[in-house]
UniProtKB/TrEMBL annotation:
Name of the featured protein: Gfo/Idh/MocA family oxidoreductase
Protein species of origin: Vibrio ziniensis
Signal sequence, start to end: none
Domain Gal80p-like C-terminal residue range list: 138-275
Disulfide bond keyword on record: no
GO molecular function annotation: nucleotide binding; oxidoreductase activity
Domain Gfo/Idh/MocA-like oxidoreductase N-terminal residues, every copy: 6-127
Keywords: Oxidoreductase
SUPFAM superfamilies: Glyceraldehyde-3-phosphate dehydrogenase-like, C-terminal domain (SSF55347), NAD(P)-binding Rossmann-fold domains (SSF51735)
Length: 361
């Protein structure tokens, strides 16, 4: 497919709200003629047709099966809830399509491994949306660490607010509070952020975790109901990186009146601080500051402004645009520069280890 426009079919696309419309579409639109969104399959033909009409798409399918089998689609993008990932991604891979699947790749480690093996057997490009890794600020931070800005890394501390997972929610998000769905605080905001931490600081040698639930039930406000909650609202992890540096992590449900993302890296020669308005590093604007040598106060450490030109202003869409740009090159050139399913398995392994450690407490 040398330098051809890649035709995209979405499984799960609402024309004016939700993740696909607010993050994926602007990302694709920023890349010129590299991609063309041509098809959609939602939960019903009526929903698909409504989206196709609103976005001027030529094809609306009654089912995901019809979309993945269409000769008009080169790349299938899966942006539905986690419990449906395995079935839908499997169908797309078996149809020989390239795939972009939102993170988490599977509902647990085993599903992720099965999907990765299937993708490898089909010889297609399969990408998982761990877009914090492609944030310009994270890539800049990786270079700073690699270039010795802080010297030898001694320790790192990460504190984040999940936004959800406190004592109240709405019907649309209640599924996040049920363990069976695999869409909880450790698999979404923490995992997305840890993917970036791993890129910057290297792998994790050992981690010990403890989960706490301050709320055993959750108020579903728009349904005027109180329901059971089976996922933690406090996640505490500590251990060592493969480099030997100490690491301490605390993710909490809801939001804080303080700093909702605080990641510090401390070394023999300097210190770096990353902050944001929410613990989802994949979807918020990150601010990076640092000081080294004789400096006593943190100063901004920002990427070159030219790197932002032509990319969406919304941080999530910008990060996703970088993934799509790399995905395009991977399809054209047979490379693997975008986050792969194999990368996703390694992240699933970290979350699985955290969950098992917490379960043993």
């Amino acid at each position: 497919m040398a330098n051809q426009t890649i035709r995209v079919g979405f499984i799960g696309l609402n024309p004016d709200s939700h993740w696909a419309a607010t993050a994926h579409l602007p990302a694709l639109q920023s890349l010129g003629n590299k991609y063309s969104v041509v098809a959609v399959a939602n939960s019903s033909l009526e929903s698909s047709e409504r989206t196709a009409k609103a976005l001027n798409l030529p094809y609306a399918f009654a089912s995901a099966e019809e979309l993945v089998k269409s000769d008009e689609v080169d790349l299938v993008v899966v942006t539905v809830k986690v419990p449906y990932h395995f079935e839908l991604v499997s169908a797309a891979l078996n149809a020989g399509k390239h795939v972009y699947c939102e993170w988490p790749l599977g509902n647990g480690l085993q599903e992720a491994r099965l999907l990765t093996a299937l993708a490898e057997s089909k010889g297609v490009v399969a990408v998982s949306g761990t877009q914090a890794r492609t944030a310009l600020e994270i890539e800049h931070l990786s270079k700073l660490i690699a270039d010795g800005y802080v010297g030898k890394v001694l320790s790192s501390t990460l504190i984040g607010s999940g936004g959800n997972w406190s004592g109240e929610t709405i019907e649309e998000y209640y599924y996040l509070f049920e363990e069976k769905n695999g869409a909880n605080m450790q698999t979404i905001p923490l995992a997305h952020t840890l993917a970036a931490v791993k890129d910057v600081l290297g792998g994790f040698a050992q981690l010990n975790a403890q989960f706490v639930s301050n709320f055993s039930t959750v108020k579903v406000s728009d349904a005027n109901e109180t329901r059971e909650k089976s996922v933690p609202d406090q996640i505490m992890v500590q251990g060592q990186l493969e480099s030997g540096a100490a690491i301490s992590i605390h993710y909490r449900g809801g939001v804080s009146r303080g700093t909702n993302l605080l990641w510090e890296i401390n070394g023999t020669e300097g210190d770096i601080q990353v902050t944001a308005d929410l613990g989802h590093a994949q979807m918020v604007q990150l601010t990076v500051k640092g000081a080294n040598g004789d400096a006593k106060q943190l100063e901004p450490l920002i990427p070159e402004q030219s790197l932002y030109e032509g990319l969406p202003k919304f941080a999530a869409a910008r990060n996703i645009a970088v993934i799509y740009d790399r995905l395009y090159n991977d399809i054209q050139n047979g490379t693997a520069t975008a986050p792969t399913f194999a990368d996703a398995v390694r992240l699933h392994e970290i979350i699985d280890a955290i969950e098992k450690s917490a379960a043993n407490k």
